[in-house]
Amino acid sequence: MAPSSDTNADASDERKDSDLVLEKPDKIGDADFANYFCTYGYLYHQKDMLEDTQRMNAYYDAVRKNPRAFKDKVVLDVGTGSGILAIWAAQAGAKKVYAVEATYMATHARKLIAANGLENVITVMQSTVEEVELPEKVDVIISEWMGYFLLRESMFDSVIVARDKWMKEGGALFPSNARMFLAPIRTNTANQKYNDFEDSCGGWDNFVDDTRENYGVDMSALTDTFEKEQREFFLNTSAWVDINPSQLLGAPCVVKEYDLNVVTLEEMKSVDAPFSLTVLDAMGNSEVGAFAGWFDVHFKGSKQNPCETEVELTTAPDANGATHWGQQAFYLERGIKPSDGGAVWGRLEMKRKRENQRLYDLKLTWEQGEEQGKPNEEIGESSNVWHIE
């Protein structure tokens, strides 16, 4: 039986949506669209974030438990996505909400907002926030901008642009504060990573032998390059993990804090901070297989307009499971043994990649001893660099 004309129209509309998701706005660079913006145009990606109950509950509580911050106020939602934060702001009594979204998701946000009867309060603007022109200043900027280990994706750059250009004096950012944490963890994955690296290099050696024997070409000139490539992948790239609190081998330390109402763009581009950890070995035979990093954000408002109820969103290890951000594991090629000293201290350096400003390289340099400042001379200083991708 031939499909009806209505069915054909529906299929055509679906194809059109698919094509439009991949249609790059003029103001966004080709690489930035392909590597970053494009993904956020798909509903499946939005659904992943909307199903994160810790994320959703924190933002929902931040809006609903602070009615004075939104009642009769003008609100800007940076990177509105599906439009849910804009909807909550309008439901909380905002006079006007400007929802800015660079991708084709703006079309879906308009549809969702209209379905909830809020199109007269919320205006969706498909644009980057850097290019958008608002008719007025705003009282509140709300945005879910955080990436892995807080800074990956560098989306807060856009929030800073919006804050400095469009927020009224004394206005508030939601969230308003952020912290980055580092902790030692117990894990067997570090050993597995190293074994996988060695297996891959062994596989290359077999490949070189087979290619020489069967095809008369000696590939060994590329061995060093292949090993370097595999080392980068297996040993120098961080990993998304869902850590159980039982894996922690010591209390986390705060390595960086931000007051988002005043932090500058330059201050967000890199991190260079000391850290100090105490490794606890309750089991008596554990060793640190990785450092783990995560973040939290707080909704406090501003000095001029503080929140009635402060709300926290944390991505710390949780026995009930991780947020969609999880934690980042920085696996160690050589584990840290508590028997060599329970104090570990050093520096964390984090910089944006030259070739992609939304990704970061993280370097940890550390010493170990019985107490901070008195290193175990037999171990010396250790360091490694990981790519947060």
TrEMBL record:
It comes from the Eukaryota. Residues 1-10 have a biased composition (Polar residues). GO terms for cellular component: nucleus. Coiled coil: none annotated. It holds the Pfam family PRMT_C. Signal peptide: none annotated. GO terms for molecular function: histone methyltransferase activity; protein-arginine N-methyltransferase activity. Residues 194-368 form the Protein arginine N-methyltransferase domain. Keywords: Methyltransferase, S-adenosyl-L-methionine, Transferase. Residues 1-21, 370-389 are annotated as: Disordered. Residues 12-21 have a biased composition (Basic and acidic residues). One of its GO terms (biological process) is methylation. This is Protein arginine methyltransferase. It comes from Micromonas pusilla (strain CCMP1545).
